[in-house]
From TrEMBL:
Key words of the record: Membrane, Transmembrane, Transmembrane helix
Keyword field contains Transmembrane helix: yes
Entry-linked InterPro entries: DUF1361 (IPR009793)
One family name in Pfam for this protein: DUF1361
Record's keyword annotation contains Transmembrane helix: yes
Protein name: DUF1361 domain-containing protein
Origin organism lineage: Bacteria, Pseudomonadati, Bacteroidota, Cytophagia, Cytophagales
Transmembrane regions: 7-27, 39-55, 62-84, 104-124, 136-154, 185-207
Length: 217
C-alpha cells in the first residue's frame, strides 16, 4: 500500500516524542497526557487521508466516498497544527534544566503533529486530483488551509473539540457565528493557514524534485 513507509516513519517519530514525555515524567511527578492525546488526534486525519489516497488509486472515480472521507478529514485536520499553540504553555526559568527539556519536548510534539498534518494534506490532495478536476482540487486545497486555522482557533480559544460536531452541533454553529465577528479568529485562521501552506509548499517541492531527479537517473 502506497505511503506505508511514511506511516511507519511517523510512528517512529511519535514514539520518540512519547519518549521525551517519559523522561519528563521520570524527573518530575506531575503528569499531563494532553500532549499524547493531541498527538493521537493528529493521526486521525492522517489515517483518513491514507485511506482516501489508496481507495482512489485502486477504485478510481469515487466522488461521493471521497467527499465523505474529506469532510471527516477536515473535521480532524485542525488537530495537527493545533499542537503549535501548546508552545504557549512554556514557562521560562533559565536556571532550570527542565525548562530546556520542555522546550524541546513541546517543539518535538508540535513538529511530529505538523508532519502528520502535512502528509495527510498531501495524500488527500492527491486523492482530490485523482477524482476531481485540477481546478476543483486546487480550490479544495486552498480552502482547507484557513479552515484548518479557524478550527485551531475554535479549539484553542473557544475550547471546542472535533467530536462536538456530533455531540454539540448547535454549540459549534453558535461559536462559529460569533467567531466570524472576532478579528482574532480571522488573524488566527489566516496565519495558521499561511504556516501550513508554506510548510506544505516546501514538502511538495522536495517530493517533486525527488521524483524528477529519480526519473532522470
Amino acid at each position: 500500500m502506497e505511503g506505508l513507509f511514511s506511516l511507519l516513519l511517523l510512528v517512529l517519530l511519535s514514539l520518540v516524542a512519547v519518549f521525551f514525555h517519559l523522561i519528563r515524567i521520570y524527573f518530575n511527578s506531575p503528569v499531563d497526557f494532553s500532549m499524547d492525546w493531541n498527538l493521537f488526534l493528529s493521526w486521525i486525519p492522517l489515517i483518513a487521508a491514507f485511506i482516501a489516497n489508496n481507495l482512489t488509486k485502486r477504485f478510481g472515480d469515487i466522488p461521493y466516498t471521497l467527499i465523505a472521507i474529506s469532510l471527516f478529514w477536515l473535521a480532524f485536520f485542525p488537530n495537527a497544527p493545533y499542537m503549535v499553540t501548546d508552545l504557549a504553555h512554556l514557562t521560562v526559568d533559565y536556571e532550570r534544566d527542565l525548562t530546556w527539556h520542555d522546550t524541546i519536548m513541546l517543539f518535538f510534539y508540535a513538529e511530529v503533529s505538523l508532519f502528520n498534518g502535512l502528509v495527510s494534506l498531501y495524500w488527500i490532495h492527491q486523492a482530490w486530483r485523482q477524482v476531481f478536476t485540477r481546478r476543483m482540487s486546487t480550490v479544495f486545497f486552498f480552502l482547507s488551509l484557513p479552515l484548518a486555522g479557524f478550527g485551531v482557533y475554535l479549539g484553542r480559544v473557544r475550547r471546542m473539540n472535533s467530536w462536538d460536531i456530533i455531540h454539540e452541533p448547535r454549540l459549534i454553529f453558535q461559536s462559529m457565528l460569533e467567531s466570524l465577528l472576532d478579528r482574532t479568529a480571522w488573524v488566527f485562521a489566516l496565519e495558521i493557514g499561511m504556516l501550513i501552506g508554506i510548510l506544505y509548499l516546501v514538502l511538495w517541492a522536495i517530493i517533486r524534485f525527488r521524483i524528477r531527479y529519480t526519473k532522470k537517473i
